[in-house]
Amino acid sequence: MVFSKSSISKTRLLVIDFDGVMTDGGIYLNENGDSFRRFDVKDGLGIKLLQKHLIHIAIISGSNSKTIRSRGEALGIKIIRVGISDKRSELQSIQKKLNISPLETLFLGDDINDLTVLDSVNAFIVPANAHKACKEKASLIANASGGFGFIREIVDQVLFSKGIDPYMPFKTKNDF
Prior knowledge:
The protein is an alpha/beta fold. 29% of the residues lie in helices and 15% in strands. The longest helix is centred in the N-terminal third of the chain and has 12 residues, at 41-52.
């Protein structure tokens, strides 16, 4: 897959897998058997920055955890798909509904069930701790691990590619 960082300036849709991308991939259990996940607040702010600049965010997860919907809704993500076994088909459905092409789509994934989207996106980007097969197929391997600022690292690159300084989010011409 050919990828240039300048091509991400066309991004209108960022699709995110959940476990291992928005989280560290761990599922923590308390003594009552209740599970929970950890998130990085920098990733959350990154998502908010993309939304501010009218970039669509979607979550597509194979998991059916209530945590996914809860976190997504807390961040204002309107497209949340859980329990998805065919991520490629779901992604294409979202693209069609939003009238967004593969060249305008980035996918952040970390494990082999995400590989089905490769021919439907401009870039398949993985965290540093992604599965080996994903790293081999990735357009870009981030420095950060999933759940530890990976999303924010990519958001910053997307915003910079569009001429927006993500370090000064409230100093753009749109804020005056």
